[in-house]
Every structure is written in C-alpha cells, then in structure tokens.
Batch of 3 targets.
Target 1
Amino acid sequence: MRKYLLLIFVASAAFLGGFFFPKSHSSSSQAPTNSAIRQAGYHYINPLLECESNVGIEDNAQLTSLKKNLNKQIDNIYSAGKVTRIALYFRDLNNGPWFGINENDQFTPASLLKTPMMIAYLKNAEENPQILTEHLLYDPTNNPPESPSPGLAPLVTNAPYTIEELLTRMIAYSDNNAFNLLTLHLPYEQIAEVHEDLGLTVPRETTPDDFISVQQYASLFRVLFNASYLNRSMSEKALSILATASYKNGLVAGVDNNIEVAHKYGVRHGNDGIDQLHDCGIIYYPTHPYLICIMTKGSEFVPLATAISDLSRTVYQDIKTLYPN
C-alpha cells in the first residue's frame, strides 16, 4: 500500500503548469479482421459479442505509412534534444489493426494508476452498487493534504463526499487527495486483484519506478470499450468519467474541438533530472474511434506535452483523411 501511495505522491498534483535511451524504435504489430459483432446502444462503450481473429499490419497500407511517418516524427523530436524517449500504441477500435513504437518500454505510471483504482471501485459496485453513494470524511491527519489541481476546490476537513464524487475528482482533475482517501478505504487485496486480472504489475515496495508500458496500459481502455471486464453499465460509467478529464495539453490538443476524448494523463517529476509525461485514451472520432497511448521522458515538461499533442495530431489528421465525415 505504501508503494502504491508513493508512486502517486510524485505524480500529477505537483504538475500545475501547461505543460539515455538508444534512438532506435522497436515495434510489433497485429491487425484483427473486421468480423467481430458488437452490441450497439451505448455512448462510450461498444460491447464485444464475438471475438475477432488477427492478421498482419502489412495488410493495411495506410497504417503502415502512418507508423513510418510517426517514426520519422519521433526522430525529429529526439533531434531537438528535450525529449529522450517516446513510446506509442495505436489501435483502431472498429476491430482494426494496432501497431506500437517502443511499446514494451517501461515508464513510471504516476497518476495513470488512478484508472485501475477507479476500475476496482466500479468492479465492487457491480455487486454492491450502494458503495458509490457511501460517504467518506476527509481527515487531513490521515491524508496529508496536497495542492488541488487548478479549478478544483480543496477537500474540506470532515466534510462528507460520496465515493462517486471522489472518483470523479480523482480522474477528471487527477486529484491526489481524493485518490489517497479512496486508496485508504478499499482493501489493498481488491486493488491488487484488479491489477492482476488486467495484466498489470501490482506496485509493491520492491517494484522499480518504471514498470508499465503503453501496450499494457492501453489494455485498460480496450477492456472498458469492449465491456469485457466491468459490466456494460460500469464500463460506460468509467469512460464517461474519463471523458471529463480536465487536462487538455496532450492528446486533446491534437484533435478538433468537437471530438470527445476519454483519457488519463500521468506526470512524474524525476529527482534524476528525467521527467515523464503520459497521456492515454480513446479518441471518439465519428464512425472510427481509436485508442492511442503515448508515454514520454525528457528534461522539460513543455516539450513532452508538445510531443504528445503533435503526435496525436499526426494520427488524427491521418484518420480524418482515411475516414472523412
């Protein structure tokens, strides 16, 4: 539990502004066929009713070209000297192909851990829906206060907050105080079980700082979109909360204003001089929603945010060209 909290204490609450690896990019890719059958009638999810089989990305010339362009763009970003490592995962959520660039590289998740925390609560709510309306009292003696995110009022001492309110604060504003309160309330075994179920490393005292990849983290959004771990109601709720995220300088900055994005960012201020900024989520492009996860390392946050938004824009413009409205 202490390791889990520590990983967040170095995360996003301190990030209030706008935001020595080899240069080569390893990658692997797959592309599923378009044979899956899905359940319609939801806003954020697209429940998977039948599984699809996989074919290679080489069968999709457009995405092969996109990946090549992204690799060149990443090389140019490296040349500027402020960003030292970038990993990217892309998947067409209409049963389309995926590809990765450095997709197995390890990063510090920081506030990205708030998403599996939310999933743990919503998993509990499937059998105990009343948990979301339970009230928790904020006690700063057990939960040392941290500065809230811009635009968010601080938690009031001894004031009651429903768990659903705290989940929204934790995700939408990446509020560490809400996260810490929720962490102390839920048995650690339930938190660990969600990580294990979803193929994520369970943070422990001996876990290194860098222990998650873009491919691993992207799986959280896939299971939510497919409603394959939480039930449909809770998957829909999870993505609706993620769609309220207040951070706009990463993935969101790369798409048109009318496009909805359900995402979570994470930031790590490194004592070693290496900072990290990540943003992962679903871009709800009409008729062709897609999943993109970008993790970065470098010496300054503004270039990291710029790199994420620029790469997001490259992907979005390519999707717009392939699937014009």
Note: The first helix runs from residue 2 to 9.
Target 2
Amino acid sequence: MLPAILLLGIITSFQDWKIGKIRNKWVLSATIYAIIIHTILFSYYGLQGQLSSLYIYETLTDFFFAIIIGFSFWYFKIWSAADGKLFIAFVALIPISTYNLGYEKWIPSITLIINIFFIGLITMLIIIITQTKKETLFNTFKSLIKTTFDIKSLLLLTLNLFALQWIVQSILIFIKIFNPILGMGITLIAYYFIESILKKKLIFFSLGIAILKIIIDPSTYTLNFAIEFVSLIIIWKIVKGIFLGTFAKTGEDLFTQTIAIKNIKLGMILKEYILKKDNLPKKEIEGIKADKKVQVIIKNNITYIKKKKNINEYDKYFNEEAEGVTLEQIKKIKEIGFKRIKISHTIPFAPIIFLGVLCTIITKGNILIVLKHLLF
C-alpha cells in the first residue's frame, strides 16, 4: 500500500497547493486500488487459513466509519468534499494493523483524524506566530493568560465539564469504547455546542448531573480521574484560547480580507452571512442598524442583513458550501446591493492530511500518545 499512499499524497498535495483542487480521478483510482489489493490479500490468506475474520470485519467497519466522518465533516463545513474523499481514500489504503498506539477497535482510523487535526493546529499556530507583528503577538498572549485564569469563568467551566465528561464516559463505556482521548474530544465538542445553545441555563443542568455523579460514582475520588479531569480543563482552555479567543481573533484578522462585491469569485469562502427577513417591524430594523458591524439593505419589504458568521444562524439567504460560494450565490449577492464583503483566505488541507498519514505510519498510531511518552 505504501507506494500508492505516497503517490496519492504527493500528487494531491501538490495540486491542492498550486491550483486549490483535488482531482477526483486520483482519489477514485487510489480507493479502487485499495479495494483490489485488500480483496487479493484477503482471498490469498483466507485460502491459506491465516486470516482472521475479525480483521476483515474491522477493515470494513473502519472504511464505513471513514465514509461517515468524511461526509459529516463536509456537511458541517469542517473541510471540503474533496478533503473528505481524500481522507476516505487514505483510510482505504492504510491497513488497520498500522494503528498500534491508541488502537480503537472497529474504528481505528479515529487515530488518523486526531493526527490530522493536531498537525493542522500546529500549522496554524506557526503561521500566526511567524506572520503576526511582535507587539500584536505579545498583547494576544497577555490577553490569553488573563482570560485563562479568570476565576469566575474557570469555576463555571469546571462544573460544566465535570457533568458532561461523566455523561460522555458513561455512554462510551456502555458501547464498550475505552479510549480516554476520544472521550475528551467528544466532551469538548459537546460542551461547545451545548454551551452555544443553552448559554447560562447550562449551569442548572450541570449542577444536577454533578451532584448525582458525586453521590453514585466512586471513581470521582480517584487520582486517575483527577489527572484526566484537570487535563480536560487545560486542553479546553488552550483550544478555546486558540480557536475561539484572542488568538483566534489574531488568526482571523490574518486570514481575512475585505473586497468589493463585484470582485467575488467562484469558490471564495465568505466571512459574513447574509440573512433575509420578510416584513420586519421598523423598530426591530432600527435595533439591527444600531450595531455598527452589521449592514442592512431593504428592498420590497424584504430586509437583507450582512453580519459576521455565527454558528447559530439558521435562516441564511443561502447555504454556503465548504468549497465556497457558487456562481448562483454570487449572482444573488450582487443583486442585493451591498458594496463590500469579507472573505477568508484558507490554506491547502491536502498536505496536512498527507502529513497526518505519514506521522500515523511512522509512529504506528496516535501522535499525542507518542508525545506523552516523550515528555512524561
């Protein structure tokens, strides 16, 4: 499989870097090649009586897991459809025996996902640090430290994560998955979405769950739980500071550009939503206009609102894909009458996926576990 992995990685990384595209013919060819090779090997070793049926089942479940992840990450606009298909092709090519450290039964390629996004995080940090002015970078770190050690937010975070971690762990144990890193990841993702929906109401839910955990779960009083829970809080603080806090703001400014509407091109990633509201009351319109970061245009009793992207906005004028705006969407935007709009510059993701694959093969598994062994 290794020659095909290297060939696919080099070609797609180069094309994504140069022209911003991953051609389907390479991804499809690699996937078909993987299926043929697996079929030949399974048939040969099966006839020799040297093949475990469990190995076949896990290879198939892992491949279907990769399809679900590839589609889901595209649907939630985490990566493009091309990136999702490339990930599926790599999973098809990598034998499940490669995943040694941090092996997760039935879905071993979750290790590859962790490695890819860890490398993506490091890449983004390097770009931000090397391309940001020293003064701005110093103020960013200063603000990050200040928000990290805010007592009120730290206590609230502790309560919420204490409750959610227990729920996630209980579900994973029930379905017989015992991966602490996976549990941490799911807990943090769940916390992000639940907090964005419930906001201050989350404290009442968390308080009830926390009290129940303290009463009925003896593992709460173990050293292992304490270490894992403190690690969870530290990771969240780092993640929030980088992706949602002042560090994220610095990175956002670095990768954001304001352009004239007439200059929008196919595939550009917008940093602003356009919302469409019918027959809004005059008082509500005036309230929206009071926000200087929001622009409003009214045409035929229809109010168009241009504002910064928000994950909780569901009534957008159009749904932008992960690949960027389409020609039809560009036409709609130009017809409204806005003069300027913010777009986002992205970095090619195929090279990051390829680096994640190489690191997985070299380390025989999870990079984070390797780093943990090196540091501790």
Note: The radius of gyration is 24 Å.
Target 3
Amino acid sequence: MSLSRRDFLKITALAGAAVGVGAPLLRYLLATGALSKVAETHYLMGTIVNIVLVAEREEQAREAIQKTVGKMRDLILIYDHRRLDGPLGQLNANGVTHHPPRELVAVMRQALHFGQLSNGAFDITVKPLLDALQKQQPVTQTIRDLIDYRQVVVTEESISFSIPNMAVTLDGIAKGCVVDGGVEALRQLGFENVLVEAGGDMMLQGVQDGDGWRVGIAHPRSPGNIIAEFFAQNQAVATSGDYMNSFSTDHSSHHIIDPRTGHSPSHLASVTVLAPSVLEADALSTTLMVLGIRDALSLLEALPAASALLITKDLELIRSSRFPSI
C-alpha cells in the first residue's frame, strides 16, 4: 500500500498516541513530560519510512532511530537483486551464491514456504517473466520454464538454482522483512513501544483505550478516501492493490503478476492482511491478490494467525472469518 506521508499521518491520527502502553497512562506521562513521542521520516526502498517511538529522552530516541535506519539499510542491501555485487545479484548472475548472509537464508526459506503454500501463486523466480514484460517482449515457453520456486536450493552454505538462467526477486516480501528488522532493532535497543511503517506496510504495537489501533483502508477507486476501518493491535498490516501501479484505465493490467499465467489477476481490487509479522503480511497480500476470492479465503482458513479483507473489482468487501469487524 503506497501511502504518502499525509496518508500515514492520517492513519496515526486515527490511531492516536497510544504506542505500546495503556492510552490513559501514556497521555498522562506525555503530558507531564515523563515520556516523549519521537517520530522521524526517512526514504528507503523507494518509499517513505516512518518510525515512531515513545522514550524517556528524545536524544536517546533519535540515536536509536538512526541506528535502526542503518540496520534497515543493511538489510536492503542483502535483499536487493539490483545490487550486482550483492548475494542476490551474484545468485542471479552465476546461478549460485556461497556463504549467504543468514538473513537472506531465512527470507529465502520463508519465500519458498509461501510458494509451496500457494501452489506457485507466490513465486520469487518470476523475475525473468517480469523482465520480459517490462521490456515489452513476448513471454515465451523458454521463459515460462524458468518460473519454478521448487528449483531453488537453499542451505546455510549456499543458495543455488537447479536450472540455468533462472533469477529471483524478493520485491514481494523484502519490504516486510526490512520493517520487521527495524522493529527488532528497536527492541534490542530497549524500545518496545514503537511503530515502524514503510509504504503502508506496518507493525502496530500497543492499544488505544482497549480497542487497538484504528486503521483506515484506502479506497481502491477514490484516491485519498477510506473505504473501511478496523481496529488491530500487536499485529502487522499490509495491503496490495491493483490501483498502486496500474497500467490501464480499467485496472486490468497492473504491477501484480500471476507467475503461473504471466497476467495480472482479474478478480480483486485490493487485499489487506493482518499477520504476526510484516514479512508474512507482505507476502500474503500479494499471494491472495493472485489467488482470487475462493482460493484466498480457503488459504486463510488454513492460517489461524492471519486474516484479510478482500475488496473485489465491484467494490464488494469480503472479510475472512478472523478479520476484525469493519
């Protein structure tokens, strides 16, 4: 969900000031000066990243934010396939990368898990297909034969392809990984009451008067407006939609591609996912867009810790069984 800074501030205004402790106590501590709420905006991964935390001393908080941004930048270098001297760049160029960073091993295993879970609706080996589409080249059978997450071999010692000329992209999962990494970095620095958000993918920690954070979902056909709201706490939120990077006026062609067909999925306008981590929410929001209504709801029933709100092309709102009331 690509939010402008104004959109993000709208969400945090709805959410209020509660970040990790009871709202009445937090308001009292902020009012008396015992605690300060510190917020900074940075530009990473081609999007706005917002970090908000509550601390006893502002100087300490800003130092922690700078260290956290540094950690997030390090993770971006690991996950970026565009960095030719990085582990993913080496993997795509040579078919193997040796001694991969443990963070990359963990994310690759998660990505392959989602590939298996979705029967290929989520597939990080889709890069050759995406490259062909970007260059407006035909998607040949030779290219289609390169799309198969099952041909990626991941061990602690190396990551490799079983088929020559394969290539991977982590664009469908990396942003969530980076946000999770930011939250973990702040936790290790002693900050539990935080919000880290990147392009609309965020971790919501804390409550507001017992109800949680009040979150607005963007209207897929009316930019700047909200189509639904819900409350959540201590959960990750991510949204994928056909309106974010649409290549046709009717939104039939957009940046989300079904790896199995080479075309944009045609049933849903957007999907908002709640999950324990931003990695999971990020990957699932894309996966569910590709799967369509029936298969998306079926998958969610098998994932007790995840839920979603599906919005159809006709703007019908469909909640999975565990998604909060809207």
Note: The longest strand covers residues 36-44.
